[in-house]
Each structure stands twice: as C-alpha cells, then as structure tokens.
Specification:
With 323 residues, the chain is of the alpha/beta class. It has 2 domains: 138 residues, 3-Layer(aba) Sandwich (Rossmann fold); 159 residues, 3-Layer(aba) Sandwich (Rossmann fold), CATH 3.40.50. It contains 11 helices and 9 strands. A 5-stranded parallel β-sheet has the order 7-6-5-8-9. A 4-stranded parallel β-sheet has the order 2-1-3-4, with helices on both faces. β3, α4 and β4 form a beta-alpha-beta unit. α2 crosses α11. The longest helix has 21 residues. It is globular and about 55 Å long.
C-alpha cells in the first residue's frame, strides 16, 4: 500500500490488516512508555486546507507516538492564501523532507491529484476531500464496531453479518461514502437512512439498502446506528423544511433510543448537533461509542502511518520488544 486515498480501493485483506495493526497500537495505551520508535527520523506533514481540530490533533498524536517529526501546515494565512498552487505547496513540503503528507482539502479529488500527479514522492493520506471520502474515519468506525462486537476475538475478523444503519446527511457526507465501501468490503449489511433530498445521485448503484424512514430501519434491529452531522455549511438550498421536523423524523430521539436493543451501538463522527440528529440521552448513554471513536482514531492513524511509512511489506511486530 503506497497511499490511503479511498476505502473503495481497499481490499478486505488490507482492511483487516490495518485493523489488526491498530489492535497492536492500542496495546501501547496502557504502557508506562507509550511512544514507539517505528518512525524515528521520518517527517509527517499535516496539510490542512480546511479546519478540523479533531482529525488534525489525532494525526499529530499518532505521528508523535511513533516518534516521527511532525509539521502542521495550515493553508489559512500561508502562501496558499496568496495564490500558491497545490503543486508548489507539495514541492515545498518535499524539499522539507516529508515522508508522508496528511491532506485535508475542500475539493473532492485533491488527495488523488496530489498522489498521482508526479509532483512528490511521499505517502499521501486523505484526511477528507470535499464530499468525496474520509478513509481513516471509516477505518476507526469499523475498528470501533469490531472491537465492541467481538472484544478479545476481534483480531483477524471482518464484520460479516453485522448490520449498520447510517442516518442523516448522506449527500454531503464523505464519512458515509467511506463507510459504505469499507463496511461492505468487511462483510457488513449496510443501510442508509435519509430524506430523499439528502440522498446522492446514483445511490442505487451502491451496495446498500436505502430507507427514507428511520423507524423502518430501526425495526431491523441494527447492531450499530451511525448518526451523521447535518452539514449546513455545504447547503445552499433548503433540503428539509425545518430543524424541528428533521429531528422529529430522522433524529435519534430519546424515545427512539429507548426502543433500541440493549447491545446496539450509537455512533457519531462528531461534532454532534445535540437535539437535531441525536439526543443527549443517546449521545451520553452506555451504548454510545462517540468517545471510543476519538480514542480509536489515534490507533488507526498510527497503524496507517506505520504501514505506509515504515513499509507494508514488513511482517515485524510494530510494538514488539518496546516499552
């Protein structure tokens, strides 16, 4: 694996390998010394053209725990805002000795362009591009589901037979797109739930079941319910009459949460709009994986950086003999 640009191109075996390495990384959390020397003298650059505190900090923490040098480059206030091209920025970073570039960009396809244009010889990790994909978010979601569902027996497993309902603003969600392809590759049964106006064109070709009514999907007893944020900043039209109606029809209200099975996972990629797509009762419940997703994000990103930068061909235990 040279880059991580999309989950659509990620084969099942590669996805399981990533999840298993993340399991190894998670073992370091309880050690007195949590830092590993795997990427010592390597440089990881976080290149963010969009604001994202959660993803940026997670990648920074992951790189530092692997002993990498970390450079965080914000496009705001930089030469990019003065007209410097993506190509010029990439070549500047290469001159700084970047071994991996984590890129978040408002244009769909920006990470693919950076990886395939021949401008730079570094591993490219897509940290979210427009409404296209967010592969590490999908990986941490899958890791969280697998860990919660199978516990100590998770290693080596996919998600065969696990039913996941993804609810909300599918149209604008790169998280939903990445999750659909990854969960399908891992064997999960994926259901999308949204008003018709928030379903993307061509969804009939996706490997999913589609529902316009949340209660209909919840009646199928999903193992995990993933609520998506309404991305009002990407909306230029009225996609639903009002926030109150949206919350009533497609929100995980306290009443809907109470009707879920006792082992149903409640997920959200954050940030949450409490009272709109999810109630505080659901978000703060014992079934909620919201905080676990944040924690697991560091382990997944450690695994991605390790496999891309240290080399996916290595069979060595990434934490063997350390700590």
């Amino acid at each position: 694996m040279r880059h991580l640009l999309s989950t659509r191109d990620l084969e099942r075996a590669s996805a399981i390998r990533l999840l298993d390495v993340a399991e190894d990384m998670a073992q370091t959390a309880d050690r007195a010394v949590r830092t590993l020397p795997a990427l010592r003298d390597k440089t990881v650059v976080n290149l963010f053209f969009e604001d994202s505190t959660r993803t940026r900090l997670s990648f920074e923490a992951a790189a530092k725990r692997l002993s990498a040098n970390v450079i965080t480059f914000s496009a705001k206030g930089s030469s990019v805002s003065k007209g410097e091209s993506l190509k010029d920025t990439a070549q500047t970073l290469l001159a700084m000795g970047a071994d991996a570039i984590v890129v978040r960009h408002h244009d769909s396809g920006a990470a693919h362009r950076l990886a395939n244009a021949g401008w730079i010889d570094a591993a490219i990790i897509n940290a979210g591009d427009g409404t296209h994909e967010h592969p590490t978010q999908a990986l941490l979601d899958a890791f969280t589901i697998r860990q919660r569902r199978f516990g100590a027996d998770a290693r080596g497993r996919g998600l065969d037979g696990v039913r996941v309902a993804i609810v909300g603003d599918i149209l604008h969600s790169r998280v939903a797109r990445s999750n659909v392809w990854l969960l399908h590759a891992l064997g999960a049964d994926v259901h999308l739930v949204a008003p018709r106006t928030l379903l993307p064109h061509g969804i009939d070709t996706w490997p999913v079941a589609v529902h316009e009514h949340l209660d209909e999907a919840l009646a199928l007893a999903p193992d995990a319910v993933m609520m998506l944020r309404i991305q009002s900043e990407r909306m230029r039209d009225a996609f639903f009459p009002s926030a109150r109606e949206y919350g009533r029809e497609w929100g995980l209200t306290a009443e809907r949460f109470a009707a879920l099975g006792p082992d149903t996972m409640v997920m959200h990629p954050g940030p949450m709009n409490r009272g709109l797509e999810i109630s505080s009762v659901a978000a703060d419940s014992s079934g909620s994986t919201v905080l676990a997703q944040v924690t697991n994000g560091v382990f997944i990103r450690m695994a991605v950086l390790y496999l891309l930068v240290a080399g996916s061909g290595s069979d060595a235990d990434p934490i063997g003999g350390q700590g």
